[in-house]
Amino acid sequence: MSVPGEPDDDIGELNSILGFHIRLAHGAVYRHFTESFSDLGLTQKQVSVLWLIVDDPDISQAEIGRRLQIDRATIMAIINRLQKRGYVERGKSTSDKRRQTLHLTPAGHEARIGAQQCILGHEQWLKARFSEAEIATLIGMLRRIHE
Q1: Share of the chain above pLDDT 70, in %
Q2: Domain boundaries in the chain?
Q3: 49 and 83 in contact (C-beta within 8 Å)?
Q4: Quick one: the chain helix, strand, coil %, rounded to 5?
Q5: Higher pLDDT, residue 20 or 57
Q6: Reported pTM
Q7: By C-alpha distance, which of 53, 32, 37, 35 is closest to 107?
Q8: Quick one: CATH architecture of 43-146?
Q9: What is the pLDDT of residue 4?
Q10: Among 94, 73, 87, 42, which residue's Cα sits nearest to residue 61?
Q11: CA-CA distances (angstroms) from residue 5 to 17, 18, 35, 140?
């Protein structure tokens, strides 16, 4: 059994590599997410897009990409897939006719509700490992890496 702060016999000096532990944590979270969402057939990025469209009903494709830190080609492919599934519609902005906005269809709203229920279960699984203070600290530390 390994002792915190000491090298693990199974992984040696990798135990002291922060990036290695971030990769392992990401893998565990991603596996649980994938299992939780297998019945919905949605990816993490697709769920995030649906969520942002509900939170900001007149949002543009470019703005979603910016907020999620996803390049233009990838966000276009994600939205095209969601549109093909009948979850998203493209339309004109009410405030700027040159701007194209995104809206959820009724099927998109249903998918988002199902995704929200899965996310709550997934978050419960993840957050059960930490206190509220630890969650806030962890989010702050992770933001320092990705922002």
Answers
A1: 94
A2: 1-38, 43-146
A3: no
A4: 65, 10, 25
A5: 20
A6: 0.75
A7: 53
A8: Orthogonal Bundle (1.10)
A9: 57
A10: 73
A11: 11, 12, 32, 22
DSSP 9-49: TTTBGGGG-HHHHHHHHHHHHHHHHHHHHTTTT--HHHHHH
pLDDT band at 125 (very low <50, low <70, confident <90, very high): very high
pLDDT bin (cut points 50, 70, 90) of residue 6 is low
Strands (E) in 75-142, as ranges, are 88-92, 100-104
**What residue type is 46 in one-letter code?**
Q
Question: What pLDDT does residue 1 have?
Answer: 46
For 94-107, give one letter per residue: b (16+ CB within 10 A) or e.
eeeeeeebbebeee
Kindly state the tokens that stand for 34.
């994938």
Looking at residue 93, the DSSP 8-state letter turns out to be -
> How far does the chain reach from its first CA to its final CA, in angstroms?
35
